[in-house]
Structure formats: structure tokens, C-alpha cells
Automatic annotation (TrEMBL):
Domain Ubiquitin-like stretches: 1-64
TM spans (from-to): 93-113, 120-141
Bilayer topology term: Multi-pass membrane protein
PROSITE patterns: UBIQUITIN_2
Listed name of the protein: TMUB2 protein
Amino acid sequence: IRLKFLNDTEEVAVVRPEDTVGGLKSKYFPGQENQMKFIYRGQLLQDQGRTLRSLHITDNCVIHCHRSRSATTAATVLPDPATAAPDAGGLPLGAGNLLVPAVMVVLGVVWYFHINYRQLFTAPATVSLIGVTVLFSFLAFGMY
């Protein structure tokens, strides 16, 4: 079989059909068994006791090898590239990415009310609003 790495290098591994996934790892990556992840046909080979025959790995098959930095990574099944959704631009949509715009909107609304309803804001509230706006501006410009 062929072991293919992320940098597109390949190594030929001489194995028997009755060899196990764990045996393959210990034979070709001694001392690094817990860091090595094998992927065959988009499936993570996580059962160390399964034989290559039971996984239908035959002559000249390609097993993709990935060396993880930590030994305790969650086992996940890789999505099929043909059915995977296209990347929407690089940044995932989450609460962290929406925090800065949300705070900007809240500050804008508070400033709108401060300008239109000045009589409701005391001097300490105005000073606090200015301070929060300046602090947030420094943080936002510092991040971007």
C-alpha cells in the first residue's frame, strides 16, 4: 500500500492483509502511534484492531497519513469533498465574529438617544458613555 502525507510525499508500505491498523502504525511510526491518524476513502481509521482485509485495503491502495500535534484529538469522519458545502469566505459565522458589530450597533443606538434625549443623561452617564466609546474604539482598531 502507499502512505501519502500532507506534503504530497508517498512511502510504500509492505503489509499483509491480516495486519491491523495498530500494527501498521507501530511498524512505520514507532513511538508516534498516538499522534498518527490514518484516513482511507474519507474515513478515519480509528479502530486499531481492524485488519486491512476487513477494511477492503488491497494492493496499491492509498492511506492518507496525518501527524497530529496532540494525542487526544476528537475522532471525526471527514466530509465527502463532493458533497461538502463551499466555503463562504474563510471566517466561520459565530458569536465571536458578531461581537464587534453588535457592540458598535448598541453604542450607536445609545449615542442616538443621548443626542436626541439629552435631558435623560446625567453628567456621569455622559462621561461613562464617552469612556466606553473610546475604550471600545481602541480595542476595535487594535484588533483590526
